Amino acid sequence: xxxxxxxxxxxxxxxxxxxxxxxxxxxxxxxxxxxxxxxxxxxxxxxxxxxxxxxxxxxxxxxxxxxxxxxxxxxxx
Length: 77
Prior knowledge:
This protein has one helix at about 35-75; strands spanning about 5-10, 20-25.
């Protein structure tokens, strides 16, 4: 499909059956085209990376909290 010359039709009100046709030229090549699938994949990867970082931070917090609880329990002995 040649996307350099796409035809777009603007529908007029029902009383008028004529249409206006204008030519649209593609400014970029197919390689520069980003689809919704690409966007969704990038969002999914970013969310998975963020989830992984949250899990790592959560583990570090749990380790720090456990070490702090151990120190406090030794003070009370």
